[in-house]
Amino acid sequence: MSDIKDVKKVVLAYSGGLDTSVILKWLQETYGCEVVTFTADLGQGEDLEPARRKAEMLGIKEIYIEDLREEFVRDYVFPMFRANALYEGVYLLGTAIARPLIAKRQIEIAAETGADAVCHGATGKGNDQVRFELGYYALNPGIKVIAPWREWDLTSRTRLIEFAEKHQIPIAKDKRGEAPFSVDANLLHISAEGKVLEDPWQAPEEYVFSRTVAPEAAPDTPRVIEIEFEKGDPVAVDGERLSPAALLARLNEVAGANGIGRVDLVENRFVGMKSRGVYETPGGTVLLAAHRAIESLTLDRGAAHLKDELMPRYAELIYNGFWFSPEREMLQALIDRSQEAVNGTVRLKLYKGNVIVEGRKSPNSLYSLEHVTFEEDSVYDQRDAEGFIKLNALRLRLLRRRGG
Predict the structure, then answer these.
(1) Of 330, 271, 21, which is closest to residue 161 (Cα–Cα)?
(2) CA-to-CA distance for 296 and 68, rounded, in angstroms?
(3) For 157-200, what is each residue's pLDDT tens digit?
(4) Exposed end of the chain (fewer CB within 10 Å): N or C?
């Protein structure tokens, strides 16, 4: 536990839900400190004004509620998608990529308000505690961190509700029962974990999904869309230029209606255990396919293959919470350099859970019909291949002659 006497003011990442409302009151009681609440709109699709009203009711004077959707997509989601980042080959890192932005704003608000501590509501078993706290310490090495789930004795939902009732913290009727699963949401994705999903053999029920229709229930007519890229970032859908957040929201809507973006995975958490999660990332799934398609035209083979080799390391850094590390920033510089000529348009067909690339074009294309054609050409001498093959085969022939 942080030294109680030392904490004078704390910035709490506050959603207004049961957990963080209890945390708010617990901070006031346990640390006797002033609390500043910070609520971020990252596109989770909730009205945030109730969080303001609840914070006011609990006596909070400094309340920050901020719309960070554009910054989230522009400065975090899009740079990550330039790398085609997938954790363990499947996960599009929807929760992980939101944490550094929340941590950054908490540290900035702490500086603005003179707070000497920050607090999050992540549990002691998951990845988010690591992501938040690595972000805090990277940006302010001297900040005090309070993690209630590692400190208090409110270890069950019953105890949380009892604490809330004792301190007259209002609880919505639908929050009194045990939640069927834990949810995290932002503009990139929504995740469901725990409770009814803990058995990896049991398929998730349809009620788990909220952003995508079942592929079987998707329209029988395919939807064809075009996405335009500039320097590796999407800038337009079907010829309409959109802001980063508006573009991702548009892709979410179109892809979700066509049953795209569902993932059911068992992942390796940074803390060492495995967890089963059911994630929906409709727009991101389409965006990944489109970005790889435009890169296939515009990236040199060596650059493309190097990016693919580095991608798992980059994805792991984000998953583990090292967004503000020098190695992630170094990799980002390399990735961003590779995107300078990644310009053009991709046409995709969306159909019953599938994303099918139909076409791609670019003013910076490296695709040469003259060189690749099966018809007669005047730019490539096929006899050159003989020496190329023999030089590449030389070590193999020497090895075989030796009997290796």
Answers:
(1) 21
(2) 32
(3) 788 889 999 998 887 765 666 678 889 999 999 999 998 999 99
(4) C
The verdict on whether 19 is a catalytic residue reads yes
Taking all residues of the chain, what is their mean pLDDT, rounded to a whole number? 94
Cβ proximity of 283 and 251 under 8 Å: yes
Distance CA 378, CA 61 (A): 76
Q: Is 128 a catalytic residue?
A: yes
Domains, in order of start, for the chain: 4-67+96-180 (3.40.50.620), 186-361 (3.90.1260.10)
Task: Report the C-alpha dihedral over residues 87, 92, 96, 102, rounded to 10 degrees.
Answer: 150
Question: Secondary structure of 179-237 in the HEC alphabet?
Answer: CCCEEEECCCCEEEECHHHCCCCCCCCHHHCCCCCCHHHCCCCCEEEEEEEECCEEEEE
Length of the chain: 404
Using CA atoms, how far residue 35 sits from 4, 20, 119, 191, 373, in Å, is: 14, 12, 10, 29, 68
38-69: pLDDT as tens digits: 999 999 998 899 999 999 999 999 999 999 99
The two beta strands, 344-351 and 223-230, are antiparallel
Catalytic residue among 15, 69, 82, 128: 128
pLDDT in tens, 78-130: 999 999 999 999 999 999 999 999 999 999 999 999 999 999 999 999 999 99
Spatial distance between the Cα atoms of 271 and 279, rounded to a whole number of angstroms: 20
Whether the CB-CB separation of 31 and 140 falls below 8 Å is answered with no
47 is catalytic: no
- Angle of CA points 133, 68, 75, to nearest 5°: 75
State pTM to two decimals.
0.94
Catalytic residue chosen out of the listed positions 15, 19, 276, 362? 19
Whole-number Cα distances in Å, 203 to 48, 120, 199, 208, 264: 32, 32, 9, 10, 9
| Beta-strand relationship, 9-13 and 117-119 | parallel
Contact residues for 274 (Cβ-Cβ < 8 A; gap 6+): 266, 267, 268
Residue 156 among the catalytic residues: no
C-beta separation of 351 from 254 below 8 A? no
Tell me what pLDDT residue 86 has. Answer: 98
Q: What SS3 state is found at 267?
A: strand
Catalytic residue among 52, 75, 157, 182: 182
> Residues 82, 99, 262, 328: which is the catalytic one?
99
